[in-house]
Automatic annotation (TrEMBL):
InterPro entries: Activin_recp, Kinase-like_dom_sf, Prot_kinase_dom, Ser/Thr_kinase_AS, Snake_toxin-like_sf, TGFB_receptor
Principal place of residence: membrane
Pfam families in the cross-refs: Activin_recp, Pkinase
Name of the protein: Serine/threonine-protein kinase receptor
Domain Protein kinase intervals: 187-477
Any GO molecular function: ATP binding
Reaction(s) catalysed by this chain's protein: L-seryl-[receptor-protein] + ATP = O-phospho-L-seryl-[receptor-protein] + ADP + H(+); L-threonyl-[receptor-protein] + ATP = O-phospho-L-threonyl-[receptor-protein] + ADP + H(+)
Organism: Sinocyclocheilus grahami (Dianchi golden-line fish)
GO cellular component: activin receptor complex
Positions of transmembrane segments: 132-155
Enzyme nomenclature, EC number: 2.7.11.30
């Protein structure tokens, strides 16, 4: 037994081959450690101080799954090895594994068990619950958005609502609105003359002349633009068509107004004139001839002219209110907001069949059975022309009978404000037309004019006269009965003089 007391620790682990080094184990002898060689006699000693503790250790390498021992032996006092019964390396993946332990032959077996380091868990603090204010905001937000949308929609509707409602000429138009832009020079608005579906008409002064200004709200821009384009059609100029001066925009945004400036006629529309004035036979002939002449020019297709070709144009809202009278009672046709132009080789554009004023709508328009061809639109105008001629005849003093108060067509049958269904029943189903009085039929001139009117408003659109044919017939009738005056006696004399003569009216022409 070897017992040696030294003042310092000596670790003596030398000598021997690699095999010998790899087989060294640690043995504890009487408070000291020594290394035992199992393949050789004798021992290599590990000596140390008595109050020091020595331990066993082992080091090795692990290369591609093959374990190669580097060294085993004694280890100087190290608190990291205290009370370890097994030699276990705990590093994750070192280049050389190392372990130490305390006890005889405790390093005979060695293992690698890395310490499992649990990943750090980040503990999220609990989410705070929704506040009462947040709940109220999210609950009321949809209602607030909906309310705002309704307010904006109402405001937009009132801003875009047309400022002028449609007022029939027979109705009281009420107080006129204040004249806009009165101080604007050189065009100054003076007096409101009429209001209708597409705006109002003012008497205005342009420098030293009076003009008419038709004012459209911005909502009726399409009508304003269409009427302007019709007036600007190449070659569109005739003595019985209202003379166009200019078109312009006034104001900005929703307050914008669209102005159409034309010549002014003090007598106003044929409707206004007939309401306050009966007409004599010469006046009737003059008005009806000039009116039919203007409509014939409107319908005519004139491709070969020095001033430029003119396409056929359908008015689509022909009525006595849209016929103006000059000082000499010559008629001029106005209001082309619904007119459609038929240029050769070009479609007429976006057109709708059931447009215009109900009272003057042809049967095919009332029942929605219009053929969207040029001739069909022109025949619709001819039906309306027949009604306007009836209005003239009803206020003529040439017949041997009293002249009644002015009435609109079908006013006696359906009243002043008929519905579409009322007119469909009277015009389409019952095929009724305004009534001719017996005294009109007995008058030679009025009788022939009534025949022309009947052929103009024929229920069969293809059987209606053309505007050119009506113009010729009125001219012939006027020449034949030019000696007729308003007195009863002269009417009788004229009837006797013409009863023996055969008056030949111009033959019916196709409206093509």
């Amino acid at each position: 037994m070897f017992v040696t007391w030294l003042t310092f620790a000596v670790v003596w682990c030398t000598g021997g081959s690699q095999a010998e080094v790899e087989t060294r184990e640690c043995v504890y002898y009487n408070d000291n450690w020594r290394t035992e060689k199992t393949n050789q006699s004798g021992f290599e000693r590990c000596e140390g101080e008595k109050d020091k503790r020595l331990h066993c250790y082992a080091s090795w390498m692990n290369s591609t799954g093959t374990i190669r021992l580097v060294r085993k032996g004694c280890w100087l006092d190290d608190f990291n090895c205290y009370d370890r019964q097994e030699c276990v390396a705990t590093e994750e993946s070192p280049q050389v594994f190392f372990c130490c332990c305390e006890g005889n032959y405790c390093n005979e077996k060695f293992t690698h068990l890395p310490e499992a380091i649990a990943p750090a868990v980040k503990i999220q603090p609990p989410q705070p619950g929704p506040s009462l204010l947040g709940v109220l905001v999210y609950s009321l937000l949809p209602f607030a958005i909906l309310s705002l949308a309704l307010v904006i929609a109402c405001w937009t509707y009132h801003q875009r609502k047309p400022p002028y409602r449609h007022v029939d000429i027979s109705q009281d138009a009420g107080l006129p609105p204040p004249s806009p832009l009165v101080g604007l020079k050189p065009l100054q608005l003076l007096e409101l003359k009429a209001r209708g579906r597409f705006g109002c008409v003012w008497k205005a002064q342009l420098l030293s002349e009076y003009v008419a200004v038709k004012i459209f709200p911005i909502q009726d821009k399409q009508s304003w633009q269409n009427e302007r384009d019709i007036y600007l059609t190449e070659g569109f100029k005739h003595e019985n068509i209202l003379h166009y001066i200019s078109a312009e925009k006034r104001g900005t945004n929703l307050q914008m107004e669209l102005w159409l400036v034309t010549e002014f006629h003090e007598r106003g529309s044929l409707t206004d004139y007939l309401k306050g004035n009966p007409v004599s036979w010469p006046q009737l002939c003059h008005i009806s001839a000039s009116m039919s002449r203007g409509l014939a020019y409107l319908h005519e297709d004139l491709p070969y002219r020095v001033e430029g070709p003119k396409p056929a144009i359908a008015h689509r809202d022909f009525k006595s209110k849209n016929v103006l009278l000059k000082t000499d009672l010559s008629a001029v046709i106005a209001d082309f907001g619904l007119a459609v132009c038929f240029e050769p080789g070009k479609p007429p554009g976006d057109t709708h069949g059931q447009v215009g004023t109900r009272r003057y709508m042809a049967p095919e328009v009332l029942e929605g059975a219009i053929n969207f061809q040029r001739d069909a639109f022109l025949r619709i105008d001819m039906y309306a022309l027949g009604l306007v001629l009836w209005e003239l005849v009803s206020r003529c003093t040439a017949s041997d009978g009293p002249v009644g108060e002015y009435q609109l067509p079908f006013e006696e049958e359906v009243g002043q404000h008929p519905s579409l269904e009322d007119l469909q029943d009277v015009v389409v189903h019952k095929k009724m037309r305004p009534v001719f009085k017996d005294c009109w039929i007995k008058h030679p001139g009025l009788g022939q004019l009534c025949e022309t009117i009947e052929e103009s408003w024929d229920h069969d659109a293809e059987a209606r006269l053309s505007a050119g044919c009506v113009e010729e017939r009125i001219s012939t009738i006027s020449k034949t009965a030019n000696t007729i005056n308003t007195s009863t006696s002269e009417c009788l004399v004229s009837m006797m003089m013409t009863s023996h003569s055969d008056t030949v009216l111009p033959p019916k022409e196709s409206s093509t």
